[in-house]
Amino acid sequence: MGGPTGESELCFPHLNSSCRKNSRAPAVSMLIYVILSSMSLLTMVMNLMIIISISHFKKLYSPTNSLLLSLAVSDFIVGFLMVFQIILIDGCWFLGDIMCGVYFVLDHIFTAASIGTMVLISVDRYVAVCYPLHYPIKVTQYRIQVCVFLCWIISVFFHCMLLKNNIQQPGLYNTCMGECVVVIYFFGGIAAVVCSFIAPVTVIVVLYVRIFVVAVSQAHAMRSQVKGAIGQGLVQRVAAKKSEMKAAKALGVVVLVFLMCVCPYFCVTLESGDAVVSASAAAFVMCLFYVNSFLNPLIYAFFYPWFRNCMKCIDVFTYNCGYHHLYNKC
Protein backbone atom coordinates (compact mmCIF):
# COMPACT_ATOMS: atom_id res chain seq x y z
CA MET A 1 0.00 0.00 0.00
CA GLY A 2 1.12 3.54 -0.72
CA GLY A 3 2.02 5.99 1.99
CA PRO A 4 -0.97 7.61 3.67
CA THR A 5 -1.91 11.13 2.95
CA GLY A 6 -1.18 13.68 5.67
CA GLU A 7 -4.03 13.59 8.12
CA SER A 8 -4.14 17.36 8.26
CA GLU A 9 -5.11 17.38 4.56
CA LEU A 10 -8.18 15.19 4.99
CA CYS A 11 -11.68 16.35 5.88
CA PHE A 12 -12.21 13.17 7.93
CA PRO A 13 -8.75 11.87 8.94
CA HIS A 14 -10.15 8.54 10.20
CA LEU A 15 -11.70 7.66 6.79
CA ASN A 16 -9.71 6.53 3.77
CA SER A 17 -12.51 7.76 1.48
CA SER A 18 -12.34 11.29 2.87
CA CYS A 19 -11.91 14.30 0.61
CA ARG A 20 -8.80 16.42 0.84
CA LYS A 21 -8.81 19.93 2.18
CA ASN A 22 -7.79 22.80 -0.03
CA SER A 23 -4.18 23.67 0.71
CA ARG A 24 -3.76 27.31 1.69
CA ALA A 25 -1.48 29.29 3.92
CA PRO A 26 -3.06 29.89 7.35
CA ALA A 27 -2.90 33.66 6.86
CA VAL A 28 -4.74 33.41 3.53
CA SER A 29 -7.43 31.17 5.01
CA MET A 30 -7.93 33.56 7.92
CA LEU A 31 -8.19 36.53 5.57
CA ILE A 32 -10.83 34.74 3.47
CA TYR A 33 -12.82 33.79 6.56
CA VAL A 34 -12.75 37.36 7.88
CA ILE A 35 -13.78 38.91 4.57
CA LEU A 36 -16.63 36.48 3.89
CA SER A 37 -17.88 36.56 7.47
CA SER A 38 -17.92 40.35 7.45
CA MET A 39 -19.69 40.38 4.09
CA SER A 40 -22.29 37.90 5.32
CA LEU A 41 -22.95 39.92 8.46
CA LEU A 42 -23.15 43.25 6.63
CA THR A 43 -25.43 41.78 3.97
CA MET A 44 -27.86 40.57 6.60
CA VAL A 45 -27.70 43.78 8.65
CA MET A 46 -28.18 46.18 5.73
CA ASN A 47 -31.04 44.21 4.22
CA LEU A 48 -32.62 43.80 7.65
CA MET A 49 -32.58 47.59 8.03
CA ILE A 50 -34.45 47.91 4.75
CA ILE A 51 -36.99 45.29 5.82
CA ILE A 52 -37.59 47.05 9.16
CA SER A 53 -37.85 50.49 7.55
CA ILE A 54 -40.38 49.54 4.89
CA SER A 55 -42.39 47.25 7.18
CA HIS A 56 -42.54 49.63 10.14
CA PHE A 57 -43.17 53.03 8.53
CA LYS A 58 -46.59 53.13 6.86
CA LYS A 59 -45.61 56.17 4.81
CA LEU A 60 -43.26 53.91 2.88
CA TYR A 61 -46.01 51.59 1.68
CA SER A 62 -45.79 51.94 -2.10
CA PRO A 63 -45.41 49.65 -5.13
CA THR A 64 -41.74 50.53 -5.59
CA ASN A 65 -40.92 49.98 -1.93
CA SER A 66 -42.74 46.65 -2.03
CA LEU A 67 -40.25 45.57 -4.70
CA LEU A 68 -37.38 46.82 -2.54
CA LEU A 69 -38.82 44.83 0.35
CA SER A 70 -38.90 41.65 -1.74
CA LEU A 71 -35.33 42.29 -2.87
CA ALA A 72 -34.19 42.87 0.71
CA VAL A 73 -35.84 39.65 1.94
CA SER A 74 -34.19 37.52 -0.74
CA ASP A 75 -30.82 39.20 -0.26
CA PHE A 76 -31.06 38.83 3.52
CA ILE A 77 -31.48 35.07 3.17
CA VAL A 78 -28.68 34.94 0.59
CA GLY A 79 -26.48 36.70 3.15
CA PHE A 80 -27.38 34.01 5.68
CA LEU A 81 -26.62 31.26 3.17
CA MET A 82 -23.14 32.71 2.73
CA VAL A 83 -22.35 31.06 6.07
CA PHE A 84 -22.55 27.66 4.36
CA GLN A 85 -20.26 28.87 1.60
CA ILE A 86 -17.76 29.87 4.28
CA ILE A 87 -17.90 26.29 5.58
CA LEU A 88 -16.97 25.08 2.11
CA ILE A 89 -13.95 27.33 1.71
CA ASP A 90 -11.56 24.56 2.77
CA GLY A 91 -13.30 22.10 0.45
CA CYS A 92 -15.00 20.12 3.23
CA TRP A 93 -18.70 19.71 3.99
CA PHE A 94 -19.54 18.41 7.46
CA LEU A 95 -23.35 18.81 7.49
CA GLY A 96 -24.34 15.71 5.50
CA ASP A 97 -25.69 15.07 2.03
CA ILE A 98 -29.26 16.17 2.77
CA MET A 99 -28.17 19.58 4.04
CA CYS A 100 -25.91 19.91 1.00
CA GLY A 101 -28.90 19.49 -1.32
CA VAL A 102 -31.07 21.80 0.77
CA TYR A 103 -28.38 24.47 0.78
CA PHE A 104 -27.95 24.47 -2.98
CA VAL A 105 -31.70 24.45 -3.65
CA LEU A 106 -32.29 27.38 -1.30
CA ASP A 107 -29.29 29.19 -2.73
CA HIS A 108 -30.60 28.88 -6.30
CA ILE A 109 -34.15 29.84 -5.30
CA PHE A 110 -33.28 33.00 -3.40
CA THR A 111 -30.66 34.25 -5.83
CA ALA A 112 -33.16 33.74 -8.65
CA ALA A 113 -35.82 35.60 -6.65
CA SER A 114 -33.36 38.44 -6.14
CA ILE A 115 -32.56 38.66 -9.85
CA GLY A 116 -36.25 38.42 -10.74
CA THR A 117 -37.07 41.27 -8.37
CA MET A 118 -34.36 43.38 -10.01
CA VAL A 119 -36.13 42.85 -13.31
CA LEU A 120 -39.43 43.96 -11.74
CA ILE A 121 -37.70 47.06 -10.36
CA SER A 122 -36.41 47.93 -13.82
CA VAL A 123 -39.93 47.54 -15.25
CA ASP A 124 -41.32 49.72 -12.45
CA ARG A 125 -38.80 52.47 -13.18
CA TYR A 126 -39.39 52.18 -16.91
CA VAL A 127 -43.12 52.81 -16.51
CA ALA A 128 -42.52 55.61 -13.99
CA VAL A 129 -40.11 57.48 -16.27
CA CYS A 130 -41.55 56.76 -19.71
CA TYR A 131 -45.25 56.79 -18.81
CA PRO A 132 -45.54 58.97 -15.70
CA LEU A 133 -49.20 59.86 -16.22
CA HIS A 134 -50.22 56.21 -16.53
CA TYR A 135 -47.97 54.98 -13.70
CA PRO A 136 -50.57 55.25 -10.85
CA ILE A 137 -53.07 53.29 -12.96
CA LYS A 138 -50.76 50.63 -14.39
CA VAL A 139 -48.61 50.04 -11.32
CA THR A 140 -50.75 49.39 -8.26
CA GLN A 141 -49.92 47.82 -4.94
CA TYR A 142 -52.05 44.77 -5.75
CA ARG A 143 -50.39 44.18 -9.14
CA ILE A 144 -46.95 44.51 -7.62
CA GLN A 145 -47.80 41.99 -4.90
CA VAL A 146 -49.08 39.55 -7.52
CA CYS A 147 -45.89 40.00 -9.58
CA VAL A 148 -43.68 39.46 -6.53
CA PHE A 149 -45.66 36.35 -5.56
CA LEU A 150 -45.34 34.92 -9.07
CA CYS A 151 -41.61 35.71 -9.10
CA TRP A 152 -41.07 33.69 -5.92
CA ILE A 153 -43.34 30.81 -6.97
CA ILE A 154 -41.64 30.50 -10.36
CA SER A 155 -38.21 30.56 -8.71
CA VAL A 156 -39.19 27.77 -6.31
CA PHE A 157 -40.82 25.58 -8.97
CA PHE A 158 -38.11 26.06 -11.61
CA HIS A 159 -35.16 25.28 -9.36
CA CYS A 160 -36.86 22.39 -7.60
CA MET A 161 -37.38 20.82 -11.02
CA LEU A 162 -33.86 21.74 -12.10
CA LEU A 163 -32.30 20.09 -9.04
CA LYS A 164 -34.81 17.26 -8.73
CA ASN A 165 -32.22 14.48 -8.96
CA ASN A 166 -30.05 16.12 -6.32
CA ILE A 167 -33.06 16.43 -4.00
CA GLN A 168 -34.29 12.87 -4.51
CA GLN A 169 -30.84 11.27 -4.14
CA PRO A 170 -28.65 13.47 -1.91
CA GLY A 171 -24.94 12.87 -2.34
CA LEU A 172 -25.42 10.91 -5.58
CA TYR A 173 -22.62 12.75 -7.36
CA ASN A 174 -20.14 12.94 -4.48
CA THR A 175 -16.81 11.23 -5.16
CA CYS A 176 -15.54 11.25 -1.57
CA MET A 177 -16.68 11.85 2.00
CA GLY A 178 -17.02 15.54 2.83
CA GLU A 179 -17.84 16.68 -0.68
CA CYS A 180 -20.87 18.81 -1.59
CA VAL A 181 -21.57 18.67 -5.31
CA VAL A 182 -24.62 19.52 -7.35
CA VAL A 183 -24.93 18.37 -10.97
CA ILE A 184 -27.13 20.15 -13.49
CA TYR A 185 -27.23 18.39 -16.85
CA PHE A 186 -26.61 20.16 -20.13
CA PHE A 187 -30.13 21.22 -21.11
CA GLY A 188 -30.99 22.13 -17.54
CA GLY A 189 -27.84 24.22 -17.34
CA ILE A 190 -28.71 26.02 -20.56
CA ALA A 191 -32.24 26.70 -19.28
CA ALA A 192 -30.83 28.02 -16.00
CA VAL A 193 -28.39 30.33 -17.79
CA VAL A 194 -31.08 31.67 -20.11
CA CYS A 195 -33.70 32.20 -17.38
CA SER A 196 -31.36 33.40 -14.64
CA PHE A 197 -28.83 35.39 -16.64
CA ILE A 198 -29.36 36.08 -20.35
CA ALA A 199 -33.05 37.00 -20.18
CA PRO A 200 -32.83 39.17 -17.02
CA VAL A 201 -29.71 40.97 -18.26
CA THR A 202 -31.33 41.64 -21.63
CA VAL A 203 -34.49 43.04 -20.04
CA ILE A 204 -32.58 45.17 -17.53
CA VAL A 205 -30.18 46.61 -20.12
CA VAL A 206 -32.90 47.37 -22.67
CA LEU A 207 -35.18 49.03 -20.12
CA TYR A 208 -32.44 51.08 -18.48
CA VAL A 209 -31.13 52.24 -21.86
CA ARG A 210 -34.66 53.34 -22.69
CA ILE A 211 -34.93 55.08 -19.32
CA PHE A 212 -31.61 56.84 -19.92
CA VAL A 213 -32.66 58.01 -23.40
CA VAL A 214 -35.97 59.38 -22.09
CA ALA A 215 -34.24 61.10 -19.15
CA VAL A 216 -31.72 62.76 -21.47
CA SER A 217 -34.45 63.90 -23.87
CA GLN A 218 -36.47 65.31 -20.99
CA ALA A 219 -33.40 67.17 -19.74
CA HIS A 220 -32.84 68.65 -23.20
CA ALA A 221 -36.51 69.64 -23.50
CA MET A 222 -36.47 71.29 -20.09
CA ARG A 223 -33.27 73.13 -20.92
CA SER A 224 -34.70 74.46 -24.20
CA GLN A 225 -37.88 75.63 -22.47
CA VAL A 226 -36.23 77.53 -19.66
CA LYS A 227 -33.38 78.92 -21.76
CA GLY A 228 -35.51 81.64 -23.32
CA ALA A 229 -37.72 82.25 -20.30
CA ILE A 230 -34.87 82.81 -17.85
CA GLY A 231 -31.73 84.70 -18.73
CA GLN A 232 -29.49 82.18 -17.04
CA GLY A 233 -28.78 79.76 -19.86
CA LEU A 234 -25.42 78.73 -18.51
CA VAL A 235 -26.85 77.79 -15.12
CA GLN A 236 -29.62 75.78 -16.72
CA ARG A 237 -27.14 74.08 -19.03
CA VAL A 238 -25.05 73.00 -16.07
CA ALA A 239 -28.13 71.74 -14.20
CA ALA A 240 -29.26 69.74 -17.23
CA LYS A 241 -25.78 68.31 -17.66
CA LYS A 242 -25.74 67.19 -14.04
CA SER A 243 -29.10 65.51 -14.53
CA GLU A 244 -27.78 63.64 -17.56
CA MET A 245 -24.66 62.54 -15.72
CA LYS A 246 -26.72 61.39 -12.74
CA ALA A 247 -28.89 59.24 -14.99
CA ALA A 248 -25.81 57.82 -16.72
CA LYS A 249 -24.17 57.04 -13.39
CA ALA A 250 -27.26 55.25 -12.06
CA LEU A 251 -27.49 53.20 -15.25
CA GLY A 252 -23.81 52.31 -15.11
CA VAL A 253 -23.89 51.28 -11.45
CA VAL A 254 -26.97 49.09 -11.81
CA VAL A 255 -25.91 47.28 -14.97
CA LEU A 256 -22.16 47.00 -14.44
CA VAL A 257 -22.34 45.81 -10.83
CA PHE A 258 -24.89 43.18 -11.75
CA LEU A 259 -22.82 41.96 -14.71
CA MET A 260 -19.57 41.94 -12.75
CA CYS A 261 -21.12 39.88 -9.99
CA VAL A 262 -23.01 37.27 -11.99
CA CYS A 263 -21.05 36.95 -15.25
CA PRO A 264 -18.13 34.89 -13.86
CA TYR A 265 -20.44 32.28 -12.31
CA PHE A 266 -22.51 31.79 -15.45
CA CYS A 267 -19.41 31.83 -17.67
CA VAL A 268 -18.00 28.95 -15.61
CA THR A 269 -21.32 27.16 -15.94
CA LEU A 270 -21.37 27.59 -19.71
CA GLU A 271 -17.78 26.48 -20.21
CA SER A 272 -18.33 23.09 -18.57
CA GLY A 273 -19.90 20.39 -20.72
CA ASP A 274 -22.39 19.27 -18.10
CA ALA A 275 -22.88 22.12 -15.67
CA VAL A 276 -21.16 20.66 -12.63
CA VAL A 277 -21.21 23.20 -9.84
CA SER A 278 -18.93 22.25 -6.96
CA ALA A 279 -18.84 24.87 -4.25
CA SER A 280 -15.33 23.86 -3.18
CA ALA A 281 -13.99 24.17 -6.75
CA ALA A 282 -15.90 27.35 -7.65
CA ALA A 283 -15.68 29.21 -4.35
CA PHE A 284 -14.47 32.44 -5.92
CA VAL A 285 -17.24 32.78 -8.50
CA MET A 286 -19.84 31.76 -5.94
CA CYS A 287 -18.64 34.40 -3.49
CA LEU A 288 -18.55 37.02 -6.24
CA PHE A 289 -22.09 35.99 -7.09
CA TYR A 290 -23.05 36.67 -3.47
CA VAL A 291 -21.51 40.15 -3.63
CA ASN A 292 -24.54 41.21 -5.68
CA SER A 293 -26.77 40.71 -2.64
CA PHE A 294 -24.29 42.69 -0.56
CA LEU A 295 -24.32 45.62 -2.98
CA ASN A 296 -28.05 45.68 -3.74
CA PRO A 297 -28.91 47.64 -0.56
CA LEU A 298 -26.27 50.22 -1.49
CA ILE A 299 -27.58 50.55 -5.04
CA TYR A 300 -31.32 50.34 -4.52
CA ALA A 301 -31.87 51.66 -1.00
CA PHE A 302 -28.97 53.74 0.28
CA PHE A 303 -29.47 56.18 -2.61
CA TYR A 304 -32.98 56.90 -1.34
CA PRO A 305 -33.31 59.82 1.14
CA TRP A 306 -36.14 58.07 2.99
CA PHE A 307 -33.80 55.25 3.95
CA ARG A 308 -31.34 57.59 5.64
CA ASN A 309 -34.22 59.28 7.46
CA CYS A 310 -35.52 55.90 8.62
CA MET A 311 -32.07 54.95 9.87
CA LYS A 312 -31.98 58.13 11.94
CA CYS A 313 -35.41 57.32 13.39
CA ILE A 314 -34.36 53.76 14.21
CA ASP A 315 -31.15 55.01 15.85
CA VAL A 316 -33.09 57.50 17.97
CA PHE A 317 -35.66 54.86 18.89
CA THR A 318 -32.94 52.37 19.84
CA TYR A 319 -31.12 54.98 21.90
CA ASN A 320 -34.28 56.00 23.74
CA CYS A 321 -35.26 52.39 24.43
CA GLY A 322 -31.78 51.66 25.75
CA TYR A 323 -31.83 54.78 27.91
CA HIS A 324 -35.25 53.99 29.42
CA HIS A 325 -34.22 50.35 29.97
CA LEU A 326 -31.14 51.41 31.91
CA TYR A 327 -33.15 54.02 33.82
CA ASN A 328 -35.84 51.52 34.85
CA LYS A 329 -33.21 48.95 35.75
CA CYS A 330 -31.52 51.44 38.05
From TrEMBL:
SUPFAM superfamilies per record: Family A G protein-coupled receptor-like
Keywords (A to Z) from UniProt: Cell membrane, G-protein coupled receptor, Membrane, Receptor, Transducer, Transmembrane, Transmembrane helix
Limits of the G-protein coupled receptors family 1 profile domain: 46-300
Bilayer topology term: Multi-pass membrane protein
InterPro entries assigned: GPCR_Rhodpsn (IPR000276), GPCR_Rhodpsn_7TM (IPR017452), TAAR (IPR050569)
Major subcellular location class: membrane
PROSITE patterns, sorted: G_PROTEIN_RECEP_F1_1, G_PROTEIN_RECEP_F1_2
Positions of transmembrane segments: 30-54, 66-89, 101-123, 144-164, 184-213, 247-267, 279-303
Pfam family, one: 7tm_1
Gene Ontology MF, one: trace-amine receptor activity
Any one Gene Ontology cellular component term annotated for this protein: plasma membrane
Subcellular location: Cell membrane
Protein family: Belongs to the G-protein coupled receptor 1 family.
UniProt-recorded name of the protein: G-protein coupled receptors family 1 profile domain-containing protein
Classification of source organism: Eukaryota, Metazoa, Chordata, Craniata, Vertebrata
